[in-house]
Amino acid sequence: MKRITKKERERIDRIIEALNREYGDDYRCFLNYETPWQLLIATILSAQCTDARVNIVTKDLFKKYRSIEDFAMAEPEELEKDIHSTGFYKNKAKNIIQCMKTLLFEYHGEVPKDINELTALAGVGRKTANVIRGNIYHEPSIVVDTHVKRISKRLGLTKETDPTKIEFDLMEVLPKEEWILYNHQIITLGRSICIAQSPKCAICFLAKDCPQANKQISEKKK
To answer: Is 127 part of the annotated catalytic residue set?
Structure first.
């Protein structure tokens, strides 16, 4: 268990309060889906691809393939063409077909809830598994995507670079009831203010409690 000083606990609490105040406490998934298996496929497609692009692709994809069976029995070459623009389409097509076959024949068409069962599915790592656990089953979970990884380090909540280690660091310092919200809030922050290149620290509502922002602002004053 990581020891947190009273001062650090107060800083983290202020960060959480500011995120809730700015973005609210409603859950919002940025991937479009109607069923658990559709979210599973969309999340597999989102690897190294923007959610916006995935949503464009799945709009037609889920009309063409209307069930787990349709995906399980899909021709790899045809599915590759359908998902080509998401990148890494050969591996993604292969994983989606195998994943849907496993759901169909081993889980009777149900997406499992257990993280070990989820990560045993083709193409599913902890990130994808936690998206499912958080959005479908409302199980407290932390999804470490590129925004969460970057901003959590800037905020001084972790020093790690490995997504799994970052996930466990965040589980230590964030209240469990905030885990799912944190995912959504940080993605929003990362797309609008705390961008990868040239973050807008001067207008960020977390600047006072962010080591990276304080450093950047101090350097500009010199």
So the answer is: yes
